[in-house]
Amino acid sequence: MRVFVNVVDSGSLSAAADKLDMSRPVVTRYVAELEQWTGARLLHRTTRRLSLTAAGEELLPRCRQVLELTGDMQAAVRHPADAPREQLRITAGSRPGSYLVHVSLLRAGRADSDVGGTLILSLDGTAEGQAKSLDFAALTGGRTRELRFNFRYLQALDQELNLPPTFKPEQLQVEVRSTKKDVAPVSQSFLWTVDAAP
């Protein structure tokens, strides 16, 4: 939804891609996925112009409301100032194409018992100009499909990822699944930004 709103506000797929620091094929794919999910074409695309369809006009204000609501929800549950701030950090590994992803899982709410579950990573980007997604198994050479966690307050997880030489990473998708059946999975996207090693 955020990509769709940015495309409309920017007036073009290319401008939205620049603003979001994504490639145009990835932006196009996100808009196509939203169109598939809604079952309606949202944008008229020509070589010179981009405009909303009737369905797009109907959906745009609702997308803005959802994005505003999710921003409010995130602000309402932010960690206290003394809690660790970084949820995810990426550093270069020891070999070319190798990276270490450091994920901090923080407990929200009362910590009266341990929480357990699995964490799954996937990576969106481009290869030879085409949008491409790599799942956890592809990023680890088939060695890892998920990371297990079990903690009360905080747990730090580190995972090495190996990228194909022609792959240009853009966004890392993190999905956390609880072992409790009544808890819905939580997903978040992070821009692929490699930090200097500490």
Keywords:
single chain, alpha+beta, Immunoglobulin-like, 5-stranded antiparallel beta sheet, 4-stranded mixed beta sheet, 5 helices, 11 strands, globular
Give a structural overview.
With 198 residues, this protein is α+β, with helices and mostly antiparallel strands. Helix content is 30%, strand content 36%. It has 2 domains: 75 residues, Arc Repressor Mutant, subunit A (Orthogonal Bundle), CATH 1.10.10; 108 residues, Immunoglobulin-like. A hairpin with a 4-residue loop joins strand 1 and strand 2. It is globular and about 50 Å long.
Short structural summary:
With 198 residues, the protein is an alpha+beta fold.
Summarize the topology:
Elements: H1 2-10, H2 13-20, H3 24-38, E1 43-45, E2 50-52, H4 54-76, E3 88-92, E4 98-106, E5 115-127, E6 130-134, H5 136-139, E7 147-151, E8 154-162, E9 167-178, E10 186-191, E11 194-195
Parallel strand pairs: 3-11
Antiparallel strand pairs: 1-2, 3-4, 4-8, 5-6, 5-7, 5-9, 9-10
Helix pairs in contact: 1-2, 2-3
CATH topology of the largest domain: Immunoglobulin-like
Number of domains: 2
Distance between the termini: 35 Å
Give the beta-strand count.
11
Could you describe the largest sheet, including whether it forms a barrel? 5 strands, antiparallel
The topology string of helices and strands comes to HHHEEHEEEEHEEEEE
Give the CA-based shape: globular
Q: What is the CATH architecture assignment of the largest domain?
A: Sandwich
